[in-house]
Amino acid sequence: MLRWAARPGLAAIVLAALTLAPLLTAAPTTAEESEPSAAQLMDDLMWDRGPIGGPFTLTDHTGKQRSDSEFRGKLMVVYFGYTSCPDVCPTDLLSISQAIDALGPAGDGVQPIFISVDPERDTLPRLADYVAAFHPRLIGLTGTPAEIKKVALAYKAYYAKGGAGEGKDYVIDHTGVVYLIGRGGEYLGFVPPQTGPQRLEEILRQQLTYDGRR
Ligand code: NI
Q1: What is the dihedral of CA 163, 164, 168, 169, to 10 degrees?
Q2: What is the pLDDT of residues 2-59, one digit of tens each?
Q3: CA 48 – CA 153 distance, rounded (Å)
Q4: Smallest Cα–Cα separation from 76: which of 174, 213, 156, 191?
Q5: Distance from the CA of 94 to the center of ligand 1, in angstroms?
Q6: Rounded to whole angstroms, how far apart are CA atoms 185 and 181?
Q7: Would you say the C-alpha torsion 141, 67, 35, 182 has a positive or negative sign?
Q8: How far does residue 195's CA lie from ligand 1's centre (Å)?
Q9: Residue 76: what are its φ and ψ, rounded to 5°?
Q10: Model confidence band, residue 183 (pLDDT cutoffs 50, 70, 90)
Q11: SS3 180
C-alpha cells in the first residue's frame, strides 16, 4: 500500500518539475520557445514526419521577391547554408552545379536554390557573388531572420550560431542535406550531405524522367 501511495506522489513531483522547468530558464522569445531542437528536426526529416517543404516567398540575390510557385514544372534543388561556410556548403553547391551541368540540356529542368541562414552577413551583393561562383542559374535567397526561420522550419532544417568566434566571426551549424522538390511543388526527399556530383546527377536524371508512377 505504501509503495502504491508513493507513486502518485513521485509522479506529481516529476510533473511539477517538468512544468516548472520552462519557467526557470531565461525568458525566451515566442519564436525560440516553440523552436524544435536539432535532434527533433533531424528525426522529423529522417523519418519523413511531414509536411516537409511548402510555400515560401523570399528575396533573391538581385533584390527581387521570389516564390516557390514560380518554379512549378521544374525540379527544385534546395540547399540551406551561408556564404562564409568553410567547407560543407561549397562542396555540396559545387556537386549540385556539376550535376546540373552534366545533365546537359535536361539540366534546364532543374532549378537550384540556395537559402542563406545568415541574413546578417549575407548581404545581396555578397550573395550574388557567391551564387555566381557556382552556377549561373543558382538563385540565392535571403530575408528577415523571421522569414528564413519560417522556411527552414518548414523544411525541418536546423541552424544556429556555434563555435567560439567573436563578433561577426562566427560559424553556423546547419542541416546540410540537399532537398528535392518535384515539378508539382511536392516534397520528394533529401540527398545526404557530401553526395558526389555523379550520384547527384543520377538521382536528378531519375526524377526528371519519372513519369508520375511510384
Ligand atoms: Ni555550410
Answers
A1: -80
A2: 344 444 444 443 344 444 444 444 444 555 557 899 999 999 999 999 899 999 999 9
A3: 14
A4: 191
A5: 12
A6: 6
A7: negative
A8: 14
A9: -95, 130
A10: very high
A11: strand
As a whole number of angstroms, the distance between CA 83 and CA 106 comes to 28
The whole-number average pLDDT for the span 160-170 is 76
Ligand 1 centroid to Cα of residue 126, in Å, is 15
Cα 117 to ligand 1 centroid, rounded to whole Å? 9
Strand partners, 171: 162
For the cut 50, the answer to whether the pLDDT of residue 63 exceeds it is: yes
Q: Are strands 139-142 and 110-116 parallel, antiparallel or unpaired?
A: parallel
Backbone angles phi, psi at 92, to 5 degrees: -70, -40
Nearest Cα neighbor of 117 from 70, 90, 157 is: 157
For 140-157, the pLDDT digits (tens) are 999 999 999 999 999 999
The position carrying cell 545568415 is 118
* Biggest CA-to-CA distance, the chain: 77
pLDDT of residue 212: 58
Residues in the chain: 214
Cell representation of residue 118: 545568415
pTM above 0.85, yes or no: no
CA of 174 to the centre of ligand 1 (A): 6
Gap between the Cα atoms of 181 and 141, Å rounded:
16
